[in-house]
Amino acid sequence: MRLYCTLFDRNYLIRGLALYESLARHDPDFLMVVLCIDQPTHDALSALALENVRLILVETLEARDPELLRVRPERSLAEFCFTCKPVLMQYALDTVPLATRVTYLDSDLYFFANPEILEDLFSDASVALTPHRFPDEFAELRRCGEFNAGWVSANNSSEGLRFLEW
After folding, report:
1. Separation of alpha carbons 89 and 61, rounded Å
2. 153 contacts: CB under 8 Å, gap ≥ 6
3. DSSP code at position 108
4. Spatial separation of the C-alpha atoms in residues 103 and 25, rounded to whole Å
5. What is the pLDDT at residue 101?
6. Residues near 86 by Cβ (< 8 Å), separated by ≥ 6?
7. What is the Cα–Cα distance from 112 to 114, expressed in whole angstroms?
8. Beta-carbon neighbour count of residue 146 at 10 Å?
9. HSE-up of 37 (CA within 13 Å, CB side)?
10. What is the pLDDT of residues 42-93, one digit of tens each?
11. Which of 154-162's residues contact partners 24+ apart within 8 Å by CB, and which partners?
12. CA distance to 56, 120, 164, per residue, from 88 (Å)
């Protein structure tokens, strides 16, 4: 089973549903943990009762990691969501005991084929990241960092967990 996690609020609900549909179409063996940033998102997804989806309220994650609750007022919604990613990945690994790896996916991603192909590429890696690879005409965007945090994968090893803690 492949374990994924994502997060979104009502503004990204349609994108998150498209991500789910693409996984459901192309990956016969997955579980997706969804962090609902607001109550309307949780209510809508609960009503849909999607197969292979576990919902978590942001308050549950904040209770697990009080540092999230502390920094939330200091950050924009986007910054807060960025901050939640590693905590959500740890939560997913902790609550799915058989999981050997977790992959965070931004909710606006979409799969056109089985993601098993990707896992074959990084199966021996504790952590997998994707570089931005900005072309020269977008060189100014390199200030955003070398790696894209929209797809991050870590295995359930001491090195993978150390990365998530970092």
Report:
1. 11
2. 101, 102, 103, 104, 122, 125, 127, 128, 129
3. T
4. 18
5. 95
6. 164, 165, 166
7. 7
8. 10
9. 21
10. 999 999 999 999 999 999 999 999 999 999 999 999 999 999 999 999 999 9
11. 154/89, 154/101, 154/102, 154/126, 154/127, 154/128, 155/100, 155/101, 155/125, 155/126, 155/127, 156/93, 156/99, 156/100, 156/101, 156/102, 157/126, 159/126, 159/127, 160/101, 160/126, 160/127, 161/90, 161/93
12. 9, 24, 10
pLDDT value at 143 more than 80: no
107 phi/psi in degrees, rounded to 5 = -70, -10
Residue among 93, 81, 105, 82 nearest 27 (CA) = 105
The upper half-sphere exposure of residue 5, i.e. CA atoms within 13 Å in the direction of its Cβ, equals 29
Indicate the pLDDT class of residue 123, thresholds 50, 70 and 90: confident
Q: How far apart are CA 92 and CA 28, in angstroms?
A: 19
Rounded to two decimals, what is the model's pTM?
A: 0.92
- Spatial CB neighbours of 70, under 8 Å, sequence gap ≥ 6: none
